[in-house]
Amino acid sequence: MEKDEFTHPYLGLTKKERKEMLEYLGLTSADELFSDIPIRSEFHMEEQPLSEQELFFEFYELSKRNWNYLEHPLFAGGGAHAHYVPAVVQKIIERGEFLTSYTPYQPEITQGMLQALFEYQSMVCELTALDVANASHYTYGSSLGEAAHMAHRINSKNKVVVCGAVNPERLEVLRAYAFGKKLAVVQTRYDEQKGSLDFDALQSAVDDETCMVYVESPNYFGVVEPNLEEVAEIAHKKGALFCVGFDMISLALFKPPGEVGADIAVGEGVGFPISYGGPSLGVFATRKQYVRSMPGRVVGATLDKRGKRGFVITLQTREQHIRREKATSNITTNSAILALANAVYLALLGKSGLKKLAERILSNTHYTQSRLAELKGVTSPLFKGYCYQDFVARIQASEQALEKSFEKHGIIAPTRLKQLDSWLFGVSELTTKAHVDLLVVSIKEALEKNEV
């Protein structure tokens, strides 16, 4: 095939093929396909479209208007947290056998990806202290939604109790999942002094119709929930499953879900950039007795006919092509490339490295809290509960003054909590003393303007 036969840099149709297609349709040109579109519509540009080079630089100029955490201190809490990802993670997941790997239905040609997913599952099980993990979901929120469906399948009950302060966006995803199954989602209040869940409210909400009790720890306010064993006991007494939402890095410091009585654990993966909030990775683990009700595929190790170790999809009951309407979920191709990144990231850190990272984040959290507490007119933290990575502070300055000051000093602002008249701060290992110094200066200026 001659090179000059191609008419587009990305589409492989030749002039001959285009001509044959037009003749078949009874047309003389492609323009006739759009003849019924008004000439002044958006599809007809008076100016010629930009070249690839011109378009690149146009988008580059637009991108400079964005603020990113490499150039600006990031203190936004309650969502995606920025972590340093070693360059080797990206290098490995860019390898052709991983980057282009689709759902690995044919184990004889996808051993590399299957082994990587098996290692990912093994690491998740070790971190959560649970028996089995699937090969991941799309997001933390979708993992939570699937957990509610799974609990409903197991005990046929129709109510999900959400304890205390949970991420509101995640809660919206849960409600969306619950809608289709006609599950009631009830959120209990939190302790206004500690920021943790209110046990009296929890006990009142959990009844014989409850299929699942859900708690996040650390919760939306960054408070590490104490006494999770008691929550498990309350749930199990009523025949409900207990689900814990976790931060993966924090598991190096705090009790894992399996040790506090959780039946299901859901969370968000690590090892990839936050990228404006996505793509993300939903982590899911459970106990062995529930494995056949668990959504998503499970990769297992086996032996081939020669006795050599190999990897296969052990369970794929979620698959529509296997069980149709009886499938345990409707997940198709998910974020498996991010599960690989997660596995590589954890392997690079190792057990001691993960613990050091968690300790650094914890140290930065309490350092930032204490620095803000030194300012007159600031209550930091607002809640008495023990915080990790996020915390709430109340600042006696107007929202407008604070936002202007944050912008002036190039700070990606904390999250505004209007109902509490407070701000939700988030930190990570990337937070430095210089960042906190700048934050203190910006808040000081806003406080001074408020006094004037």
TrEMBL record:
E.C. no: 1.4.4.2
HAMAP family reported in the protein's UniProt record: GcvPA (MF_00712)
Alphabetized UniProt keyword annotations: Oxidoreductase
The organism's place on the tree of life at top rank: Archaea
Protein name: Probable glycine dehydrogenase (decarboxylating) subunit 1
Quaternary state and interactors: The glycine cleavage system is composed of four proteins: P, T, L and H. In this organism, the P 'protein' is a heterodimer of two subunits.
Catalytically driven reaction(s): N(6)-[(R)-lipoyl]-L-lysyl-[glycine-cleavage complex H protein] + glycine + H(+) = N(6)-[(R)-S(8)-aminomethyldihydrolipoyl]-L-lysyl-[glycine-cleavage complex H protein] + CO2
Annotated Glycine cleavage system P-protein N-terminal domain residues: 10-440
GO biological process, one term: glycine decarboxylation via glycine cleavage system
Similarity remark: Belongs to the GcvP family. N-terminal subunit subfamily.
NCBIfam families reported for this sequence: PRK00451.1
CDD domains noted in UniProt: GDC-P
Annotated organism of origin: Candidatus Marsarchaeota G1 archaeon OSP_B
Pfam families: GDC-P
SUPFAM superfamilies linked: PLP-dependent transferases (SSF53383)
Gene3D superfamilies given in the database record: Aspartate Aminotransferase, domain 1 (3.90.1150.10), Type I PLP-dependent aspartate aminotransferase-like (Major domain) (3.40.640.10)
GO molecular function, a single term: glycine dehydrogenase (decarboxylating) activity
Stated role: The glycine cleavage system catalyzes the degradation of glycine. The P protein binds the alpha-amino group of glycine through its pyridoxal phosphate cofactor; CO(2) is released and the remaining methylamine moiety is then transferred to the lipoamide cofactor of the H protein.
Keyword Ribonucleoprotein: no
Gene: gcvPA
